[in-house]
Amino acid sequence: MATQLPTPSSWPYELLLGWRYTRAGRRTRRNGFISFISFISVAGIALGVAALIVVISVMNGFQKEVRDRMLGVVPHIQIVNDGGAQAVDWPALAARIRRVPTVTGVAPFVAGQALIAQGNTLTGVLAWGIDPVRESEVSALPAHMLRGTLAALRPGSFRVVLGEALAQQLGVSIGDQVTLVVPSGSLTPAGMIPRLRTLRVAGIFNAGNYEYDSGLALLDIDDAARLFLTGGPTGLRVQTRRADDAPMIASSLQPTLPAGLDARPWTDENRTWFEAVVIEKRMMFIILAMIVAVAAFNLVSTLVMTVTDKQADIAILRTQGATPRSIMTVFVVQGAITGVFGVLSGLALGLLIAFNVDPIVSTLETLLHTQFLPASIYLIHRMPSDPRTGDILTITGVALLLSLLATLYPSWRASRIQPAAALRYE
Asked: What are the domain boundaries of the chain?
């Protein structure tokens, strides 16, 4: 025997009546003002939810973009000499670290602060001495080369690869010469004299991160060791299978390292910035959730006016045997339908904008003849967006909960109306 689907007439009358009141409020001229307030409530909830989705998605995208671009240059783990280690056997240490299953690459490096000059232009840079052969194991810099290659960095050649923004600032291109000024120089009767070395530009890269594109210079590791008087590598750059596992892997490596060496995961780089983004994201969620709450509690006004307008109907229902709980359910259903419609409208609008933020911003920049994210100020120059399922579900759940809470008091008041008092002046 076939099973029949439930028809609307077989549904609980509380649900049918709540849906009817929701629709009637939009059709009846007498209730035009109530319909207007109901529309404002729906629009407020929709705009609040949409704003919350867009803002959180943009903050997620900004954090992900900066992180990915930073990890294209910075290794997952750096093992550095904090000054306490003596005569470190770097090749043996690198070979031992490579045997760790979660490690995908190890390369030695030399790092130091320096000044670079061309003509009258002088600027500070972070000079990295790298092994061009192994660099692809620990960073994506070889893939970010615009002109030239890292293979041009050979021992004794004293060549340099510059970030694009730095090359533009100095006004140099491939084949031009720049002067590197290293603080560690020679002590003379006249004081400390910095070491100077003329370098020839062998390549230009663009990592997509202005901080590195404007302040990073790459040299061969042997040339850098000679310039900075280190006598060899000053540390190892380690790449892991997953960037998120780097802190745990660094902690496991630390006890196995010689005394004086420190394993630093990438999360230690710009730690303050990442922590600030997390805090800002939480605060923005709270602030925008308050906007949703204000819009949701506009439902209180709508339901209060609806209850006042429907007192006679409530009284008739009570005289026909409806319980206070049933009356309360009718208005909870009415408010919930309004809230759900607002939340779903906001969800659709928010996702539409979140998935098209960059084209929308580009269009506005063209129309307004401005740039919202100048590359010289921000780490990236485009508006990223990363809508995440967890955030979307949280926002939707909070908005629905606030909408439901807003219906409880007016619905409870409706259930307390006495039939005799309501029909006295009818």
From this structure: 11-67+274-423, 76-268
pLDDT above 50 for 187: yes
Between CA 75 and CA 156 the distance in angstroms is 26
Measured CA to CA in angstroms, residue 291 lies from 299, 306, 400, 421 at distances of 14, 24, 14, 38
Is the pLDDT score of 201 beyond 90? Answer: yes
State the pLDDT confidence band at 26, using cuts at 50, 70 and 90: very low
Cβ distance 49 to 343 under 8 Å?
Answer: yes
19-28, 67-76, 229-238, 298-307: the lowest-pLDDT one: 19-28
Question: Could you count the other beta carbons within 10 Å of the beta carbon of residue 91?
Answer: 12
pTM for this entry:
0.71
Which residues, at least 6 apart from 247, have a Cβ–Cβ distance to it below 8 Å? Answer: 265, 267
Exposed e or buried b for every residue in 367-381, given b needs 16+ CB within 10 A?
A: eeeeeeeebeeebbe
Neighbour tally for 106: CB within 10 Å: 23
- Calculate ∠ Cα 7-13-18, nearest 5°: 105
Beta carbons within 8 Å of 126's beta carbon, 6+ residues apart? 111, 112, 113, 114, 215, 216, 217
Residue among 415, 259, 354 nearest 55 (CA): 354
pLDDT score of 420 more than 80: no
Q: Which two tokens stand for residue 339?
A: 């809230």
- As a whole number of angstroms, the longest Cα–Cα distance in the chain is 109
> How many residues can be counted in the chain?
426
